[in-house]
Amino acid sequence: MLSFGQIFKRMDQILRELPKKAKDKQNENKKFFAKLKKRPPKNLDYIMQELHEEEFERTDCLDCANCCKTTGPLFTRADIERIAKFLRQKPQAFIEAYLRIDEDSDYVLQQVPCTFLGADNYCSIYDVRPKACREFPHTDRKKFQQISNLTLKNVAICPAAFNIVEKMKKNIGKG
C-alpha cells in the first residue's frame, strides 16, 4: 500500500508528463476521433460507459484534482442559483464574488485554481457543484463522438481521460 506522500509524488509526476504525452498523441487522437465521428460503432455508448467505470475503479480524483487546479467549469443559471442558495447568497452576489463572463458569453470562475478547492483536494461545494464538474471528464456521456474536441482538451488535463481514450483506441481499433 502506497503512503499519501508516495501517491502525491506519483500523481505529481503523472501530471507533469501528461501535457507532453497528450501532445504526442494529439494527431493520432484527432484522426481517430474524425473516423469515430463518421462511423461510430453502434455500441459506442456502452463501450465508453464500461471504459469509464473501469478507469474510475482505479482512479481517485482526490489524488489529482488537476481539473479544479487548471481549468474552470461553465456555470449554468441553474448552477448559479443552486450554489448561491447553498452559500446563503443571492445569485447576483455569487456572480459578483466568484464569476466572470468569458469570450463565449458563459459564466466561468474569475480565477483558477477553483476557489472552492481545498488544500486536501476536497470541494467545499461538492454536493451542489456545477453540472460541468459532476460530468467531468465527460467520458461516459451519451453520443460521445459528438464531444471529441472537448475530449481532446481533457486528455491533457485528466490522467483518467487520457487512459480511457488510449483504451478506447485499442478496443475500437485504429482502422
TrEMBL record:
Pfam families xref list: CxxCxxCC (PF03692)
Organism: Zobellia uliginosa
Name recorded for this polypeptide: Zinc-or iron-chelating domain-containing protein
Superkingdom of source: Bacteria
Listed InterPro entries: Puta_zinc/iron-chelating_dom
Phylogenetic classification of the source organism: Bacteria, Pseudomonadati, Bacteroidota, Flavobacteriia, Flavobacteriales
